[in-house]
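Lecture notes, unit on protein representations.

Consider one protein chain, 950 amino acids long.
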Amino acid sequence: MNKLKALWLLLVAFIAVPVMAQQMPQLPVDKAVRIGKLPNGLTYYIRHNNLPENRANFYIAQKVGSVQEEESQRGLAHFLEHMCFNGTDNFPDDKLIKFCERIGVKFGQNLNAYTSTDETVYNIDDVPVTDSNVDSCLLILHDWADGLTLDPKEIDKERGVIHEEWRMRSSASSRIFERNLPALYPNSRYGHRFPIGLMSVVDNFKPAELRAYYEKWYRPDLQGIIIVGDIDVDKVEAKIKALFSPIKMPENAAAYEHYPVPDTNQPIYIIDKDKEQSQAVIEILFKHDHLVPDEYKNTPAYLTVKYFETLASSAINARLDEAAQKPDCPFITAQASDGNYIIAKTKDAYTIYILPKPGKDKEALEAVMTEVKRAGEFGFTATEINRASEEFLSGIETIYNNREKQQNSFYVPQYVRHFLENDPIPSVEDEYNTYKMLAQQMGQMQMTAPAASDLFKELTARTDTNFVCLAMYPDKEGVTVPTADQFKQAIAAAKAAKVEAYVDNVKNEPLVPVLPKKGKIAKETQTDFGYTCWTLPNGARVFYKKTDYNDSEVQFAATSFGGNNSIITKDRINTKLLPTVMNSTGVGNFTSTELQKKLAGKQVSCSINLGNLTENIAGSATPKDLRTLFELIYLRFQAPANDVDAYDNTMSYLKSALENAEKQPMKAFSDSLVNTIYNHNPLCDGLKRADLDKANYETIKKLYAERFNAAGDFDFYFTGAINVDSLRAFTEQYIAPLKGVKSREKYVDVKNDPVDGARSNNFFRAMETPQAIIVQMYQGKTPYSMKEAAVVNALGAVLTQRYLKSIREDAGIAYSVSTDGQADFGKYDSYQIITQCPVKPAKLDSALLLMKQGINDIATKGVTADELSKVITFELKDYADNQKKNEYWHGLIMQKTLWGKDLRTNYEATLKSITPKDIQDFVNNVLLKQNNCITVSMRPTDMTEKDGTK
């Protein structure tokens, strides 16, 4: 018996003995979900849940992925996923997508699927619940299970789409990973089953081969139906039985296998490089079997091991974060977690991700492994583990407190994982009580820290077997790539190092050591959208709305005119760095490390940001942590902390990220796009590596103090599960005493606007995988109104429909293409219509022609009633769903107070009033008349791919 298994049995004993001496109890399955299995083997899960109201999610999960493919079939699992949207028995051709869009279900957003090595999952989300819609969505699931047409003509059209998906996803890290997959998985099928497959197979397989794969693997015993929403469970169950029972289980069905990842008796070192890799990355992986055997997954043992693994990872990550802040630390960041061994379902790994400082690779690996040894030799301290436990239980409690108001999307993934991997699905109450009892029992026995420490020690004990070191580097002159021997030496040095026990230094003083003198609320008024406004003597205004949409959430924001534009002309570089630096350093008397420890167990956040015209603070908290949120708000208006170590660490990260950024094609494209749109305005330039040499922490702090000096210049907003008495008390204690202003600041216009006229920037660039992309933007000024905004949005949605049909489905020259239309207001009223299209390089000009044709067709012929109806149906559904979201109301009141715009009154009537002529008139009278069209495209200097195609 290996040590890890022995440790597991010990952990089991801790929880089993107090509960039941003879047998491990089962975790009760949540009684609110109905689970059944049809005679043909198909499994179903049905749950009634009324959030969002009148909505339901429909899923079918298949225990089939790329690992089931034979060598000649590599790519068919993923190809089959695509074909599920290209014709079924009851929804031929593109009727499935068209039906869904007519009921407000948008392709890509609500209607989608994914394929991995071991599973394929399809979803239809946020379906408006009517008897007809439920029947139709069940029919779609049925057709996906057993009714694909697999038309050869549709297959041939989809080959190009998948080829472009492969092209779009071909990044430096994916290329390194894929070509080293066989070495990462020696003697395992996973080493040759990357889900996207081989393009030689995708481009050349015969339709009969795809049909054979479908008939072999899409069968009832490997399929699970999951339906969660505002539905009648009894009726839906009866419909499932009637619709899915006739599907026959194949005779002599192929054996379904789990493919192992064999243990390796020697460590695996893989060090590779790519010209487009932006920075060095090192991963160390300790492979191991599943921590909990499958037969114990639905027992408290599963939650026990999950609890201790989470605590151990939290503790080691806190140590690594703290170490990274030290000036002499050779790594910028390092993070540990446990999970699947990369893409394999049958083997897990404890993984530590390391971002070394440039040229400090060996030292970074040794430093991280030294911390691993320190934790293994001395364990974690009780105070470290107590903080980790408080944080964990606080997160579970947040879910528990909101258990009656969870969305459909909370439950669906749990049932998918239960079907695919037998993960437990207890009720929120049972899970919360189990964890709470576990924490209490282990705490009383003083075994929490020892158990977490022992688990971590065993997970990271071996570097001679089942150990992997994977490192990725830029292929660039001047970048020295370490050898495997050098990494081995670094690990050996760490294992041989003499280490001392970790000392957990904790600052115990309050966040706000001396409370300011309380102020008073000067005036209370009722304002828009059900908000109340408190005006304070310092000039600040506090807007709040108590809601019951989420019992564990209070959202917060504060905003004031000023922003980037008020300071960027005197110091562009430090202005752009300000938000990143100030959010990564400490507040008050606390460094970032001290602050993390102080906030353990509190669900609270508070960060700052600079827009062009405003400075902003945003955050959230649970109701019980509201005081802490107010303390952080108060500290945001005090003198910045002098957290030099955190500043230096942040700058090291930015330097590393930007060091090789120019080698990335998409970074070059992004820079070209910005330069073209803003006519090379230096105020709009992104940061370059050389800019960081001009950064100055003292200057950034001065700029911050200037922008966040006086709370009297700000409006504060609170939305959610508010206790009004607490909110009042905290407002008087922490906001009212802050500095006021005589008059409020106004925004500054520095003329950093898009250029007018027609502009094109079409360029070529050398790249590792031939890729091409187009972004086309129409923009200009037009008076803002609610209707104009709805028209512009509808135009973008219709163009997306048309381009998906013409560019993706018919031409097969792109995987994704989308157009976003937005009318805006601020310093002036404006609109933007932006189309983005990654495209086959040789067909870039064809895509441009189709994009032009899409605009011109609307100008001459307008849009159809069906196209517009789809858009309005989706927007009305989205509007209805927003009524019970705090962020929706939060945004409404902010736009009203900041800009005087009411984005709610008569919204539904306005949407319904839009006509096809409104969209056609906008295209002719605004879009084409102004003709402010910017087109930027990038394509490769060499379009030849590895297989010789173009």
